[in-house]
Amino acid sequence: MIDLIPIDVSTFGILGCVVAIALGGFLRGFLGFGAALLMVPILSSILTPAVGLVIMYLVEVPTVLYLMPPALKKGKVKIVLPMILALLVTIPIGFYFVVALDPETIRIVISVMVILMVALLASGWKPRGEISLLTMIIGGCFSGLVNGAAGVGGPPFVTVLMARNDDAEITRSNIIITMGCMSLLTTLTQFFYGMMTVNLLIISIFAFPIYIGFTWLGAKYFNSSGNSYFRKAALVMLILIAIITIIINI
């Protein structure tokens, strides 16, 4: 597996990637988002930003197929559709920076974006007034640009959806629907930019059972006893992720 990676990575580094994938999968299953906020900075630091982003979203594709059907039954597609259309337009624009800038610069961008996105959620800030169509579109546009450039575009649209004050199950389902579409659009954009290789596809095949296994555990915990802790868990987990990101990039 180490020979498949286009850079020299130690066994300890591979172990770090496996742990990040496992924890990211649990967050994805429990919260409906959060995997990229943990996985992207860690994988980008151990590997390269481009490789980390590709692996992150390749393992996401089958996961989307697993999480999406129940979310479509409980969520509200009409509400999140404007966000999804905004993501379609802005993700390719953000990806330009991954291709154009050097890896060290992108690592810094990713670290800063993770911290800012976590701060946004932890601050408790909400859009003023009613969550209008324009607010949904702006949230989708911002998420698309951030996700394209740094792979961590979840928090802007998550903030908007949480501000709707729907119950936890509907909020989580809407997040899963939007996150799933964002992941698929991101994967297609990576393919368009020529970032995918056969080697990275093989690595992702090895990584997927770990990711989907821990996604299943996270979803099972949410369904059994985690529902009432949804909002607090989201903020606590993301604060911990921010601390880890800072330590890695010092």
Structural commentary:
By secondary structure, the protein is an all-alpha fold. The chain has one domain. The protein contains 10 helices and no strands. Helix 2 (35-46) runs parallel beside helix 10 (230-249). The radius of gyration is 17 Å and the shape is globular. The model has no long low-confidence stretch (mean pLDDT 81).
Q: How are the secondary structure elements laid out?
A:
Elements: H1 11-31, H2 35-46, H3 49-74, H4 77-100, H5 103-122, H6 133-150, H7 154-163, H8 168-192, H9 198-226, H10 230-249
Structure summarized in a few sentences:
82% of the residues lie in helices and 0% in strands. By secondary structure, the chain is mainly α.
The N- and C-terminal alpha carbons lie at a distance of: 28 Å
Give the helix/strand class: mainly alpha
Proportion in helices: over 70%
Could you state the order of secondary-structure elements as H and E?
HHHHHHHHHH
Let me know the number of strands. 0
Count of helical regions: 10
Return the domain count: 1
Strand content: under 5%
Biggest sheet: strands, sense, closure? none
Cα-atom radius of gyration: 17 Å
Low-confidence stretches: none
